[in-house]
Amino acid sequence: MAVQTTAQFEGIVMFRKDYRERDQLVKFFTREFGKKMFYIRGARKRGFKLAAAILPFTRGTYVGLIREKGLCYLNAEKKLTQFEQINQDIERNAYITYILNLIDSAFSDNQAIPVWFDMASDALDMINNGFDPEIISHVFELQLLPTFGVQQEWQQCIVCHRTDLPLDYSEASGGMLCQNHWHIDPRRSHLDRRTIFYLQRLSSVQLKNIRSIKVRTETKLRLKALIDTIYQDEVGLSLKSKHFIDTMNSWN
Ligand SMILES: [Zn+2]
């Protein structure tokens, strides 16, 4: 692209922060240009005309001055979608915040990643419509692992590639081991078949193809424990929004 250009783009408001006395910096996830920081002059003034366009998690069609590097400027909005259930529900809000934080951590700014934009867009619709936000966040966690440089083989034995024998996850091996190779890792996960099934599904499924999700509580606990361990040990990512979710869950 040119150093700067006025363009129409699809965007999702990732987060915003106050800047100077009356202004805000708003990070947009754009479909066309990747993640971009926008300088919104007068955003905190009463009656600001683009106030609705920069509310958290708004998705819309916008027009702005896009700069290759540095801050961008918003000129107008053409169509906005607000997600009422996400805005009103602390739990849905927390999971969407976490998913957008994950994407923000996994990719650098100014890199077009339309596939991930579409997935984030689907996640907004699905979580707003009542899909289990924890399961949706697992889809992002699992499918972002390669971007974080952590390749895991979920579908077959990492040694012999068999899929017909019972499989178990081995963190040390970086994926599944079949029964014949369980001896390689005495500390394998000892996961049940149901948890293995969901790991294989969630790590490969296209989000928008999920029609309904109902995962048992004990399976959810195992999935979460395993994915948390991988993120702690292998990715080394510690996000405030994730700690918030864990704290929130401990209230229940
Ligand atoms: Zn094997």
Molecular structure report:
The chain is 36% helix and 25% strand. It has 252 residues and is an alpha+beta fold. Among the domains are: 82 residues, OB fold (Dihydrolipoamide Acetyltransferase, E2P) (Beta Barrel), CATH 2.40.50.140; 78 residues, no CATH class. Strands 3-2-1-4-5 form a five-stranded antiparallel beta sheet. The chain has a three-stranded mixed beta sheet with strand order 6-8-7, covered by helices on one side. α5 packs across α6. The site of zinc ion has 7 residues, from loops.
Q: Number of helical segments?
A: 7
Strand order of the largest sheet: 3-2-1-4-5
Q: How many E strands?
A: 8
Provide the low-confidence segments as ranges: none
Give the distance, in angstroms, between the N- and C-terminal Cα atoms.
Answer: 49 Å
**Overall CATH class of the domain at 1-82:** Mainly Beta
Shape: elongated
Bound molecules: zinc ion
Which descriptors would you attach to this protein?
alpha+beta, binds zinc ion, 252 residues, OB fold (Dihydrolipoamide Acetyltransferase, E2P), 5-stranded antiparallel β-sheet, elongated, 7 helices
Gist of the model:
It contains seven helices and eight strands. It is α+β, with helices and mostly antiparallel strands. A five-stranded antiparallel beta sheet has the order 3-2-1-4-5. The protein has a three-stranded mixed beta sheet with strand order 6-8-7, covered by helices on one side.
Provide the fold topology.
Layout: E1 4-19, E2 23-30, E3 34-40, E4 59-67, E5 73-81, H1 84-88, H2 90-106, H3 114-128, H4 133-144, E6 153-157, E7 167-170, E8 175-178, H5 193-202, H6 217-235, H7 240-251
